[in-house]
Amino acid sequence: xxxxxxxxxxxxxxxxxxxxxxxxxxxxxxxxxxxxxxxxxxxxxxxxxxxxxxxxxxxxxxxxxxxxxxxxxxxxxxxxxxxxxxxxxxxxxxxxxxxxxxxxxxxxxxxxxxxxxxxxxxxxxxxxxxxxxxxxxxxxxxxxxxxxxxxxxxxxxxxxxxxxxxxxxxxxxxxxxxxxxxxxxxxxxxxxxxxxxxxxxxxxxxxxxxxxxxxxxxxxxxxxxxxxxxxxxxxxxxxxxxxxxxxxxxxxxxxxxxxxxxxxxxxxxxxxxxxxxxxxxxxxxxxxxxxxxxxxxxxxxxxxxxxxxxxxxxxxxxxxxxxxxxxxxxxxxxxxxxxxxxxxxxxxxxxxxxxxxxxxxxxxxxxxxxxxxxxxxxxxxxxxxxxxxxxxxxxxxxxxx
Length: 401
What we know:
Radius of gyration: 22 Å
Low-confidence stretches: none
Strand content: under 5%
Helix content: over 70%
Largest sheet: none
Structural class: mainly alpha
Distance between the termini: 38 Å
């Protein structure tokens, strides 16, 4: 299978588990526990942001170098504009689903934040990407990252890749030290003047999470230009980083499970939790993700050529998994699928509100149906793309006849 097919499969995999994690039903869904997020501090969002950066780096570097910088900038801004309009439409739809359905606003309003009350100030904050409903957060991030990509890509292609990497790391570190708090407080104060209690709302701090997108952008651009030496980073024999990465993954999994099963003393737990902040993508999340990403990358790139039977077997299994047609289908249309999954998540909330509570079998059926429904926008988009090609083929056949 090609590299792009595997990347599509990986994106599809993360989309599936985003849907799994966003199916919220009273009492929880037992089937949703079959999830990599149960084994550490790595979740689907991290992988999706990194892969978005890699794909953007590969595609827009090709446009930049083979066509022109202006063509790349136009496409990036057009993509950001298209995603912004689509995101605003989805936000309007989910807000309408909760606000207009009788009896839904009070129990489900928490998923919308202040948007549940349709105040003008809140609507303005939402349009400015400062106050978003639950499950729309990655869309907001990606719009911001796309808008910043022309500048980042210009610096990378002008030979300043290291400066970009250092700047990204410095920005992440600044968030960890709280240097962003005065800016956030000022934004909250400004929004509070628009509407009482209104504040910035979103589970991800884009100033911290950008480290993933920028890393992906650097990798994707280097790959596209033939400057990413896979044999250096992922050697088949005696890879120097593999064992430390594996140890980090195992330690994080053991530590996470110890917390889940309350095996850690409160004093130790309180101290450790200072370094566990998903919103600001704290050190624990970064280390765990970097380690697991390296292990999986090594298995996909070097694993098939390994003489170790366990490594080679695991590599074959992962390659087969990430090349499943369903996952590749979703990955080819990742943004459309993500937008659709938000609507499905809110539909499930309404179904549970008015039809629940459900038993575990029914919950499992709802979960699997939600995942299967992700194929709808992907198939619709593939069919829409195929129609112009079919019409063109018919015209060519007619002219030849």
